[in-house]
Structures are given as structure tokens and as C-alpha cells.
Please model this.
Amino acid sequence: INTLAIVPIMSKQHHPRATEATTKYFLTQAAASALILFSSTVNAWHTGTWDITQMTTLTATTLLTLALAMKLGLAPMHFWLPEVLQGVTMTTALIITTWQKLAPMSLIYLTIHNLSPTVLLLMGILSSLLGGWGGLNQTQTRKLMAYS
Model:
């Protein structure tokens, strides 16, 4: 629902870069949402429950972790974020980097006891390192915001 709400705001500027950023954002978020749905389906198939907070199978938790990393723009699923933020206005970039991250963070909070702490720690460290290195030579504020 968040994606459908932000897409018109992103494409409000009638510019090819805004259209490209909107398309990249929509496709990335749709793929991540499909992965969340697929991980929930795999979990329901193996355990018999649709409760996303009761994931016990490795396949379902791995898919959920990848999907949430893609939605949050964490490394190694972060390649879409700088290009998307570069194509939109500063206000829209601020919304994407803050408000749009609340739902995936709440899903991480709800499923943290089932997700692998090692994988989450590695993704956090990798995101910090790649974000630091990627942001060193940036002169544009939106790309710097994407790497931070």
C-alpha cells in the first residue's frame, strides 16, 4: 500500500529521470512484496500456519530476510536506491528514505526471533561499509543520502 501511495508522488515530475526512478522503485518493491508473499506461502505449506511471526523453516526465513533487505535497501540488495533517489525531488527522496522504511522495519521487529542474527548482522555491517565507501566521492545530496 505504501508503494502505491508513493508512486504518483514520484512520477509527479514529468521528466524521464522521474519516470525511470518510479519504474525502478515500483518493480523493486513489487518483487520484494512477492518474495514476502512467497515466504509466507512456503511457511504455510511446511508448518500449516499463515502466521508470519511463526516462521520456522529455513527457506521461508531466508526469503523473508532477502525481501526485507530489498525493501530497506540494505546491502547486497541496495543497488536500486541511489538511482531511484537521484531521479526524484529531495522531498520525495526524504519520504522514501524514512517513511517507506517503517513497514519493513516493523516486519523485522515482529520476526526478529526467527531471522538469523548472523545474517542480519552481516547485512548491517556490509551496508555500513558499502555505504561509507560509496558515499565518499559523492557530490550530490540525494546519492549521499542513499548511501548513508
Summary: Residues 40 and 112 are 15 Å apart (CA to CA). The two ends are 25 Å apart (CA to CA). The chain has a mean pLDDT of 92. The first helix runs from residue 2 to 10.
